[in-house]
Amino acid sequence: MVDSAPKELQNRRSRALANSHQTPALYRAVFGTVCVFLCLPVVISRYAPLVDYPSHLARAYILAHFDDVPRYQQNFIPTRELLPNLAIDITGGYLLRFINVTTFSRLFLASIVLLFGFGCHKLGRAIHGRPTMMAILCCFLIYNSMLLYGFVNYLFGLGMFCIADAYYLEFRNHWTLLRLLFVGTLVFVSYVAHQSAYAFLGATFVAVATLDYYAAGQASTLLSAIGLIVPEVFVYFMNPHHDLTTAIRWSGLRQKIIGMGAFAFTYNYWFDISFIVAAILLLLLAVCLNRNPRVVRPTMLAGLLLFACYVLAPYEWLGSSPVDSRFIIPSLLLLLLSFEWHIPRKQANFVFAACLLLFSLRVAAVWRTWHALDREIGAQVEMLNEALPEGASVYTAFLTVDSGVPISKTDRSFLHVSEYATITRRALIPTQFAKVGQQPLLFRSRPFYKAPLLQSPDWIGAMQRYDYAWSYALPDQFERVLQQHCIPIAKVGKGVLWRVLPAGTLMKAKAIF
User: Fold this and answer.
1) Rounded distance, CA 124 to CA 131, Å?
2) With the C-alpha atoms ordered 326, 329, 333, 335, is the resulting torsion angle positive or negative?
3) 435-445: per-residue pLDDT in tens?
4) pLDDT one-digit tens code per residue, 30-41
5) How many CB atoms lie within 10 A of CB 281?
6) Residue 174: how many CB atoms within 10 A of its CB?
7) Residue 142: strand, helix, or coil
8) CA nearest to 491, candidates 512, 507, 466
9) Residues 6+ apart with CB under 8 A from 46
10) Backbone angles phi, psi at 318, to 5 degrees
11) Residue 41: which of 251, 255, 223, 266 has the closest Cα?
12) Nearest-angstrom CA–CA distance, 145 and 266
């Protein structure tokens, strides 16, 4: 984030150009190649194995076809609330009327990657007055734990945060009415995409404007920053979306330390540790080679403020989790971009190439896991399509963290896979995300649902309210319970589709597949 004084900005640009080892052509070539590479895993995957993603995709499909499918009208009701969590609902609710689910999924996930990449480029340019190779490395941050969890609205909002922040930094000393309206529109789109993006922008604008005010003594800097974020406050309180009295759960110290690795997590803990160690060593090497260490203070301050938000924020609040870890990626992004690097050409090329290789290996490792999961998810979807009748109700017999049974990261990717049947078979799945104040689609009558728990029999009664049950990777003790109340009718891999017997019926079912 460039300093207020135009002379200082010119000096920074001169220093950057004098110490730059890049050419515009080289920058464009590497930036374009990295963006294409980062898009490949999400574009090639037919069923992206992102935990919550199938539920969001199914909801968008329902919204797009609500008027055409009587079964959807029987089970759901759309709302008209302007919720700060609508990225996939707005885009999918429109585009899925014209293109199929697979094409939309690939386009939407690729747009998340490209939006973030463009945002990194714009931020680097706004902060340093020219494109910076550090922005290219920051593009790899899109492959974070939030992506693996399928928090696609958050990720779309993260890209919007980068773009809105970049234009704010570029215009903040030279406002016109048109520029204010343009940045204000970007802020509003960020808010609608996901409320966390708006929180990031609010914290960043206030941090930068406050530092500008103390540096130049101009109240207009603070007034413009506040004016850009105030309208959304009125929108939020005019449309109350959450019960602010909901339970708040805080992370312990160990969980906070682990949460700091949100930028690095994959599906293998040993790989994650090795990656973090290698990344820290490369960062230390770059710091040691930096001949004239400088930081852009507004950027550094904003990054530190977002990190403080991570430390102070709860783990669970307003029905969402993890709330705190969502601050890690924008904080790390701003902190990395706040450094001015003045490293000799050969050493700079070596460090950049090593970082590029390390980050690419991590994406390749994720991609390799996705390739196997994509095939297994496809097999489960095909089984559900063949065995389920149109409009069936399906209980999801999937373990949660409350079950006390360890769940692998790869198995966790199947939590919402059954909700593809909502798209293909118009099935009613109780785990569909359709919560008051969080999604623009609600159940007409909320299905009763309890996740499987050995220590509590309530889930059996919940299951018996449904026509079928779908289980995946259930331990033997849970399967034995299912065998007393259900008949298995199809099995593929770790997944089993069961026909639920009427309440009061007990039997030892025999597999018929």
Assistant:
1) 6
2) positive
3) 888 899 999 99
4) 999 999 999 999
5) 12
6) 8
7) helix
8) 512
9) 102, 374, 378
10) 55, 30
11) 266
12) 7
